[in-house]
């Protein structure tokens, strides 16, 4: 979206995720300009304090340079803070990935999604299911646009060519189709010692090697709960940049993750996924046959056993379209933003008695959540 908006976009980076492997590499990888404004003192704070600091800092920034609209994407604390700050400033809010619902009140992201919904002026829903959720909640139909999800184009643009992907796979001492790739980082899994130990034990019991990029939250939990033993039985690797993760995901036998983004990416990569969670806000991936929801314990063991035994799953998924669109989501979103909030581009020639137009560029108040789930 930022690339399509060009100079009319202003990127604000909250710093919610502060690990360079999960954040700053994405600006270079996607060819994005450096953030125009960075918030300080946000990363690593408890959720309430983090949101409060972001709202305060974003309010100051928006007052100093009021934009035509504020775009917030997803369900991060940053998205919630950006929507609240913009709403309080009287600036239109555009919510990208609007309408996702897990109906799980214990999920922090669910609270963020439900906080943003009544504040948003334009809801860019990725699917018809997401749009239907918004309509049932009383959002007016003319404020909801089904756009698809930007993850499709991001995945297609970032996935390395086959030769490079195979090099990355070989670099990790595994062979295509001969390993699992797992990511675990959600609080429901990492904040519960018994649950995290069970997940790690079940993965370690598999016959195939399991690559496990350790998220900073997971690494801290492993240390705090004394789980170095179970982790040592897995192929622990450092957090990956997006291209590296996609290369490994594209050629793995099976994905195991509690990430929201991986549930979308697997539909583009055509790889089976076990979602280790109590609930999901992305049921489209499950209904389409790409993902399977499983709690640790019997459900996870059964899902792993059955999917690893299904030798035709890869061929079957290769024939299925992604439920998240055809890769034109950014164009659809930018078209909606331009038509509703942006005046036509100014002419190059200007009479000397004309005053320049005020700065009314849209702000993308975005956390680096693209990598936050790795």
Automatic annotation (TrEMBL):
GO terms for molecular function: UDP-N-acetylglucosamine 2-epimerase activity. Residues 346-360 have a biased composition (Basic and acidic residues). It is an enzyme of class 5 (isomerase). It comes from the Bacteria. Residues 340-374 are annotated as: Disordered. Keywords: Isomerase. InterPro entries: UDP_GlcNAc_Epimerase_2_dom (IPR003331), WecB-like (IPR029767). Pfam families: Epimerase_2 (PF02350). The keyword rRNA processing does not apply. The keyword Mitochondrion does not apply. Its EC number is 5.1.3.14. Residues 9-337 form the UDP-N-acetylglucosamine 2-epimerase domain. Belongs to the UDP-N-acetylglucosamine 2-epimerase family. NCBIfam families: wecB (TIGR00236). This is UDP-N-acetylglucosamine 2-epimerase (Non-hydrolyzing).
């Amino acid at each position: 979206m930022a690339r399509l908006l060009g100079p009319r976009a202003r990127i604000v980076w909250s710093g919610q995720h502060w690990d360079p492997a999960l954040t700053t590499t994405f600006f270079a990888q996607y060819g994005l300009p450096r953030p125009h404004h960075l918030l300080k003192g946000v990363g690593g704070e408890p959720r309430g304090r983090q949101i409060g600091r972001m709202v305060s800092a974003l309010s100051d920034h928006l007052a100093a340079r009021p934009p035509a609209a504020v775009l917030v994407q997803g369900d991060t604390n940053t998205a919630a803070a950006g929507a609240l700050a913009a709403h309080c400033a009287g600036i239109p809010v555009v919510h990208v990935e609007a309408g996702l619902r897990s109906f799980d009140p214990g999920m922090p992201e669910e609270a963020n999604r439900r906080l943003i919904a009544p504040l948003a002026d334009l809801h860019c829903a990725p699917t018809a299911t997401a749009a239907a959720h918004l309509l049932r909640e009383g959002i007016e139909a003319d404020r909801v646009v089904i756009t698809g999800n930007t993850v499709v184009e991001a995945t297609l643009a970032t996935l390395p060519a086959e030769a490079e992907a195979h090099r990355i796979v070989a670099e990790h001492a595994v062979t295509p189709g001969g390993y699992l790739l797992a990511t675990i980082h959600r609080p429901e899994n990492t904040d519960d010692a018994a649950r995290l130990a069970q997940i790690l034990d079940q993965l370690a019991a598999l016959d195939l090697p399991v690559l496990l990029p350790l998220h900073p939250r997971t690494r801290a939990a492993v240390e705090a709960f004394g789980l170095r033993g179970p982790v040592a039985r897995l192929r622990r690797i450092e957090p990956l940049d997006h291209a590296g993760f996609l290369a490994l995901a594209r050629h793995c036998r099976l994905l195991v993750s509690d990430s929201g983004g991986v549930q979308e990416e697997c539909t583009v990569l055509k790889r089976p996924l076990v979602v280790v969670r109590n609930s999901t806000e992305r049921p489209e991936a499950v209904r389409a046959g790409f993902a399977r929801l499983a709690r640790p314990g019997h459900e996870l063991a059964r899902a792993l056993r059955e999917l690893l035994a299904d030798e035709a799953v890869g061929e079957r998924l290769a024939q299925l379209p992604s439920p998240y669109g055809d890769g034109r989501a950014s164009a659809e979103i930018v078209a909606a933003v331009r038509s509703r909030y942006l005046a036509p581009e100014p002419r190059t020639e200007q009479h000397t008695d004309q005053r320049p137009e005020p700065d009314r560029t849209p702000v993308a108040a975005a956390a680096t959540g693209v990598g936050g789930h790795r």
